[in-house]
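Supplementary material to the annual report.
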Amino acid sequence: MIYFILISLLLLLMIAASVYSIAQKDLLYATMATGIISLILSILYYLLQAPDVALTEAAIGVALTTIIFVITIRNTVRMEDETDKKEKFKSAVK
Amino acid sequence: MTYIIYYAFILMALGMIFSAIRFVKGPTAADRTVALDTLTTIGVAALVLLGYMFKRFIYVDVALVYAVLGFIGVIVIARYLEGAL
Amino acid sequence: MSIMDIIGGILLIIGSTFLFLGGLGIFRMPDVFNRLQAGTKATTLGGMSLVLGVGFLQPDWIWKSLIIIIFIAYSNPISSHALARATYRRGHYPYIKSEDKENMDAYQEVVPHTKEKEDKA
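Predicted assembly:
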């Protein structure tokens, strides 16, 4: 019973972090939410009796993804741009 | 001993929920980074306790990797906020 | 139940209580530096004592538990220090109590120097 409650709580936290990461306009906060998703996914792999997959997920998701995304944000922009999207699309199509 | 493990799991789940609420609410970027760091530390402790619950020695290695690598993301974000990356 | 089990159970209770207090402090404190204090020091003590308690409960694991304790003890203060320095250099100053009644936060405490608005760098 407590096993079921634990897995349900972890899945709810993971879904909430995913929705937050999609809906957030600030890309740095979305990157941090990706770190939370990786942590909970690693615990879930661990509960499903696959420690090697959890090891790989921990090593890649917590360090490599965050570093690559932060360096990308440093070289581009931090806030997602929402102004006149249709004109950008039109100019890109033409 | 079983009730002590249940107690520890319930308290750690409450701590994770409070940290997640602060992660969603926090006004500045530093608040969210502190919440992420706390979530990582509570996650390491939860992985070790789950390894004790399953009685498998190899499961502690995941917690070891998390304890080694968990602070690199926080340091990278802090250097980016400082402007010195 | 031997003496090692009793010591391990007491360490488990202490560790989980301090982990919960760290989460609660992050939720309750009014300032970035106070949250940093609560969220780093309390979780460092909690995590170290909980891992040591598991090492007492299962005496074959004590060396790996000691390695995890060493890594927690050096990685948590490093990240806390880097984050506090970055926050201070961005212009957020710590909580100072004064008679200025203009800047009150949600817990009815005076925070004169803290900029509570969203930062966009």
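Chain C touches chain A through two residues (CB under 8 Å).
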